[in-house]
Write a structure and sequence with these properties.
Layout (H helix, E strand, L loop, with lengths): L2 H10 L10 H11 L21 E6 L4 H14 L4 E4 L11 E3 L2 E2 L2 H15 L8 H15 L4 E5 L16 E4 L7 H4 L3 H8 L9 E4 L3 H13 L4 E4 L13 H14 L6 H10 L7 E2 L4 E3 L5 H15 L4 E5 L7 H8 L3 E7 L9 H11 L5 E4 L2 H8 L4 E4 L2 H11 L12
Parallel strand pairs: 1-5, 1-6, 2-5, 6-7, 7-8, 10-14, 11-12, 11-14, 12-13
Antiparallel strand pairs: 2-3, 3-4, 9-10
Helix pairs in contact: 1-4, 2-5, 3-9, 3-10, 4-5, 7-8, 11-12, 12-13
């Protein structure tokens, strides 16, 4: 398969849905270890001999996972480590999910890796899911690239997330809040139990400050696993952080606590945090456009705080699109506090809530707040004219907007997961 064919095959596996469990990922990693083109032993897998080829930092939580992963990766690269970074979802190209030393996996390596995986699993029942395959592809690529430190972001939850099929050297848990309730549970305690599932016996844990009902769950799990637990409650103040917002200083504190387990120098920490880049996290595109991928109430709340830190009492024209499984009403209640008006474009994601449905919710929350419907992202930007614009609601939507702003709309590899 070439890259386009391989990606089409991988995207087609989304029909198998989201299935929690580690068995398929473990089986796939073991099969890949002896497949053509493999560089050797797989990472330590439950039920398999502990053959570790790299040190692993595993990051779970609700908000801030990607930023923390990016910070850890940036610091470790400055420190001279060869790093592998696995995150999701991507913004424009699928290749963003898998990076070695900051560089995206090549189209050739995607095609080659997926061709091997397709051959291995063609008769498997149950068939591996999109995320299980993507996780295995990433770990195989990091293995072949001889990465020394691997940073893994969970896709959803933690306990039964495909990334939990490997044993980490350090576990990190960012703030836990409501999201993905259909899969993780309807209470914060239930969600926390899934996130805390990445905690392994005797593996140190760095945890952000949490609400009491989630902190208790994390503490209990750590005690059961005899896992040393460090609660990070203070923001990082040792240097500047390139990512905007007070919350990013708390994320930086988590990242610093994690890399200190590897003896990384203070100079590397300072340089890594000052140079970290992570798109769609309060990304100031130009003098009037901000792009942020906030996609749940907690993220929207933090976005509003960051907007006020940066722009004071100035209100934003908010160009907004959101996916069907999100808490639309609570997100909008947060965002109306800084909105002068909303513009609701039709977007490419098949999971997006129709603009008219969003408009009805806005009207119920703030009847006097102006709201416009746009046929597309370009039309929405045109309607905003020269006003200060905030683009938010979904990382998928942020990716579509960034592709347009870069003049690369045709390069957008839209994905439901």
């Amino acid at each position: 398969m070439n890259y386009s064919e391989a990606l089409a095959w991988l995207y087609a596996t989304q029909k198998f849905g989201i299935k929690f469990g580690l068995e398929n990922t473990q089986r796939l990693l073991r099969a890949l270890a002896s497949s053509p083109g493999s560089a050797g032993a797989p990472p330590a897998v439950f039920g398999a001999p502990p053959k570790i080829y790299a040190r692993i930092i595993h990051v779970a939580g609700t908000n801030g996972k990607g930023s923390v992963c990016a910070m850890i990766d940036s610091i470790c690269r400055v420190a001279g480590y060869r790093t592998g970074l696995f995150t999701s979802p991507h913004l424009i190209s699928f290749r963003e999910r898998i990076r070695v030393n900051g560089g995206m996996i090549s189209e050739e390596d995607v095609a080659r890796g997926l061709s091997v995986i397709r051959e291995l699993i063609q008769d498997w029942d149950p068939h591996p899911t999109f995320f299980e395959i993507t996780t295995a592809l990433a770990l195989r690529h990091f293995q072949n690239a001889a990465c020394e430190i691997i940073v893994l972001e969970t896709g959803m939850g933690g306990r039964l997330d495909a990334t939990n099929a490997v044993t980490a050297d350090v576990s990190v848990i960012t703030p836990i809040d409501f999201d993905h309730q259909k899969w993780l549970g309807n209470s914060l305690a239930e969600i926390a139990a899934e996130k805390a599932g990445i905690i392994k016996p005797d593996v140190p844990v760095i945890c952000a400050r949490q609400k009491p009902e989630t902190a208790c769950v994390v503490q209990t799990r750590a005690k059961e696993c005899n896992a040393p637990l460090e609660i990070s409650t203070q923001p990082w103040t040792g240097s500047a952080v390139a990512l905007r917002g007070a919350h990013q200083k708390f994320n930086a504190a988590l990242a610093v606590a994690a890399v200190r387990h590897f003896g990384v120098s203070e100079e590397a920490i300072t340089c890594g945090l000052q140079s970290v880049q992570w798109s769609a996290r309060f990304q100031i595109w130009n003098e009037r456009i901000v792009v942020d991928g906030a996609h749940n109430p907690g993220g929207a709340r933090t976005l509003v705080q960051t907007w006020r830190e940066e722009f004071g009492h100035e209100r934003a024209v908010i160009i907004f699109a959101v996916l069907r499984d999100k808490d639309l009403s609570e997100m909008l209640r947060e965002l109306t506090g800084i909105a002068s008006r909303f513009i609701l474009p039709s977007v490419r994601s098949v999971r997006a809530v129709p603009p008219l449905e969003i408009a009805a919710v806005i009207s119920s929350i703030s009847p006097s707040l102006p709201c416009s419907i746009a046929a597309s992202v370009p039309e929405a930007l045109s309607l905003a004219q020269k006003q200060h614009v905030l683009i938010t609601g979904s990382l998928h939507f942020a990716g579509e907007v960034l592709a347009h702003l870069r003049g690369e709309s045709e390069a957008l590899e839209e994905c439901a997961q």
